């Protein structure tokens, strides 16, 4: 089925749902193993019985900043004007972080932004900024620039907004991946080709852009290869190096095995904590779950790593692909910021179609 405005709405809305479910008000993100979360989920009556709403299921930093990116894009601004707008909204978003656990690089980066002043959307290079904070808020860039011939705009906006907090390529290339995968979902491109598209189409454009933008070129180039190397490794592991499949899965791949696998994807030991592996786990979940919502959340949102950020990415793509029909109403009916998520989705659809 072609991508409609309802798919945009489902993508934005379900990204927030995935974030809130994976976060569980600080109880699940980073704190519990996949099997322990699945056990608790069963005690709560299963996913279909969870009303995702305040006070128990707030959205986290992911959704606050994803909304900031999306609402800046929805102004229709472009180029530097857009980057100042995004920076302004990130600064505003930090006023709404009570109980939402923003990451270290996000806090530091946004503190250094000076929107409205010359070059004020740039921050000094930070070799530690490899986390998933840029990836988790960039899916909407793929909704705005979804046409194959808009790929360079998608990449440039993802790189520049990503490095407002995550100047290390492992960090900001995560933003490129999230945006790209969402644009592929809009295009109805087969999921088995997404990883190869990232490596062969988007990353080379990002590298050329970094050179032409002339900011932190040497530092960025010297940190480049971890992201692309780990993605090559993952595509080999899953039999997707040629972008065709079939996907190679382990014999056993339940919550316990997935915790181990996701840790092996990671740099730090926390699956999904970085820019390369948050979109990697999201893709792994999309490949495995098909159109099954419960299976998607099981794989993308209920594991022992950075569960809200892997879910926010996976659920956005899943909503764009499959819409909202297969999701129990209680999962999204009273979601915090539902109105803003739906509104901005409609605006992005109108702007880009
Ligand atoms: Mg979070």
TrEMBL record:
Residues binding Mg(2+), per UniProt: 60-62, 306, 308-309
Pfam families (alphabetical): ADP_ribosyl_GH (PF03747)
TM spans (from-to): none
Coiled coil: none
Biological process (GO), any one: protein de-ADP-ribosylation
Family in the record: Belongs to the ADP-ribosylglycohydrolase family.
Cofactor(s) demanded: Mg(2+)
Protein name as annotated: ADP-ribosylarginine hydrolase
InterPro entries: ADP-ribosylarg_hydro, ADP-ribosylglycohydrolase, Ribosyl_crysJ1, Ribosyl_crysJ1_sf
Keyword terms of this UniProt record: Magnesium, Metal-binding
One GO molecular-function entry: magnesium ion binding
Stored SUPFAM superfamilies: ADP-ribosylglycohydrolase (SSF101478)
Cofactor note: Binds 2 magnesium ions per subunit.
């Amino acid at each position: 089925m072609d991508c409609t405005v309802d798919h945009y709405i489902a993508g934005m809305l379900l990204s927030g749902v995935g974030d809130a479910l994976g976060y569980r008000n600080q109880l699940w993100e980073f704190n519990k193993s996949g099997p322990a979360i699945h056990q608790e989920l069963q005690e709560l009556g299963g996913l279909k019985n969870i009303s995702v709403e305040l006070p128990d299921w707030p959205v986290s930093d992911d959704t606050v900043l994803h909304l900031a990116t999306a609402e800046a894009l929805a102004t229709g601004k472009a180029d530097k004007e857009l980057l100042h707008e995004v920076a302004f909204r990130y600064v505003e978003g930090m006023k709404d972080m009570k109980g939402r656990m923003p990451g270290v690089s996000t806090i530091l980066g946004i503190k250094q932004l000076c929107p409205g002043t010359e070059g004020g959307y740039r921050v000094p290079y930070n070799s530690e900024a490899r986390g998933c904070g840029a990836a988790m808020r960039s899916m909407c860039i793929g909704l705005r620039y979804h046409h194959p011939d808009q790929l360079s705009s998608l990449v440039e906006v993802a790189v520049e907004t990503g490095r407002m907090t995550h100047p290390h390529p492992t960090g900001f290339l995560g933003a490129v991946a999230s945006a790209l995968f969402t644009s592929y979902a809009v295009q109805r491109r087969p999921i088995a080709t997404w990883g190869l598209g990232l490596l062969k189409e988007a990353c080379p454009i990002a590298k050329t852009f970094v050179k032409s933008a002339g900011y932190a070129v040497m530092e960025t180039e010297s940190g480049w290869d971890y992201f692309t190397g780990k993605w090559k490794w993952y595509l080999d592991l899953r039999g997707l190096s040629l972008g065709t499949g079939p996907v190679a899965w382990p014999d056993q791949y339940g919550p316990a095995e997935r915790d181990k696998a996701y840790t092996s994807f990671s740099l730090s030991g926390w699956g999904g904590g970085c820019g390369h592996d948050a979109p990697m786990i999201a893709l792994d979940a999309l490949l495995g779950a098909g159109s099954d919502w419960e299976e998607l959340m099981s794989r993308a949102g209920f594991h022992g790593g950075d569960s809200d950020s892997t879910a926010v990415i996976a659920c956005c793509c899943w909503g764009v692909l499959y819409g909202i029909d297969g999701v129990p109403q209680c999962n999204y009916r009273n979601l915090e910021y539902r109105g803003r998520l739906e509104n901005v989705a409609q605006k992005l659809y109108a702007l880009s179609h």
